[in-house]
Design a protein that fits this description.
alpha/beta, Oxidized Rhodanese, domain 1, 5 helices, 4 strands, elongated, Rhodanese-like domain-containing protein, signal
């Protein structure tokens, strides 16, 4: 009986001490999640590999500088910079392939969407990223 009373007393004490509401959002205002109204045009690693070195085809690596230094797709342009618009080709119909680390990385998808928003039509997204590329044994370059 003492053990039961002790357990109840501890439980009630904990309820009193920790009786603050818990919010998943930290107690701030709730906001809607972003809606991506631009559908990306995916590209497989196999198809992307056939486009390396072709005229009017650009690979954009949206990874961190550390990942870039470990190796990138041959001819890729490091895209994770503030003045990224200067890196884009003049031809708005050029094929541009964006990639980052892996399917969990969203940086390349965001960069691709921003590029579509400013009028580029040949934008593709390779979701497997550089990790998928390396794991499949495809060639890479280092800076």
């Amino acid at each position: 009986m003492k053990k039961l009373l002790s357990t109840i007393l501890i439980s009630v004490s904990l309820l009193v001490v920790f009786n603050t509401p818990v919010f998943a959002g930290g107690g701030g205002e709730m906001t809607l999640a972003p809606v991506y109204d631009i559908q990306l045009n995916p590209i497989s690693m196999r198809e992307a590999e056939t486009l390396i070195g072709k005229e009017d085809v650009y690979f954009f690596d949206v990874n961190t500088m550390e990942l870039w230094a470990e190796g990138y797709i041959p001819g890729a342009i490091y895209f994770n910079v503030k003045n990224w618009k200067k890196l884009l080709p003049k031809n708005k119909d050029a094929v541009m392939i964006f990639y980052c680390a892996n399917p969990l990385c969203t940086s390349s998808a965001m960069a691709a969407r921003e590029t579509v928003k400013i009028g580029y039509t040949g934008v593709r997204h390779m979701s497997e990223g550089i990790y998928g590329w390396r794991l499949s044994g495809r060639p890479t370059e280092k800076p």
